[in-house]
Predict the structure of NADAR domain-containing protein.
Amino acid sequence: MPKAKRKAVSKGKSAAEDTTVDETIVAASPKSKPKRKLRSKNGTPSGDDKAINITVEIPHTSTKPVFFFWTDEDSEGFFLSPWFTCPFEYDGTRYVSAGQYITACRARDYNDPDTLDKILLATSEDEIKALGANIKDSPVSHWIKHPDYTTHIHEANLRKFLYSDQSEDLLNRLAKLGDRELVFADPTDRYLGIGLDASKAETGGRKAWGRNDYGKSFKRLREKIRNPVSPKKKRPRRKLSDRPWYDSVW
């Protein structure tokens, strides 16, 4: 029985294009840090992402003492706050702060386009917070359980620290804190923050603290900065007995 000829497959083409975004390292000169660019799996750069150089190294340090930050513009840690003004663009939309991005995601997740439009036009922390509290069918108790809740927080920080015009300055300031635990001491927010100011948080103890979801997100951000590309999982090899019968014919 004559063997069937196999068709040659061009290495430059694939049967179907896969546009899932994947992070890759773009080669750089030995003296420079690798340039990280978001690309789709077929090699096409993602339209919203620019190539960036991560030139900052975050040192491994103790997590203590705790570093409290809040929304006071004159405070040392204000740059960490989700309400720090730091415009960035994502998916064709411009946001004035990480807090606005998170609130807009909440409106999208709960299908409230009218409130979403108002959130995107707002610029102040108080106005955006008030609009977020009125998103339809979106009580905070439900929102914090949404499967994309923590992802939105991480994405907001990622955009702010890596893809804004202030990225270099923000990364340098973040690096000075090493691995110190970051706690968002916002007395008005027990979810993104702890619901207490710094002085009451220190005297009251951790049992009185809220969730600090925004503060906790910096741990994941640090990991991403240190390891910008996630390692690919190896696919297990199939045993000969697991292969279809026609694989062994050829």
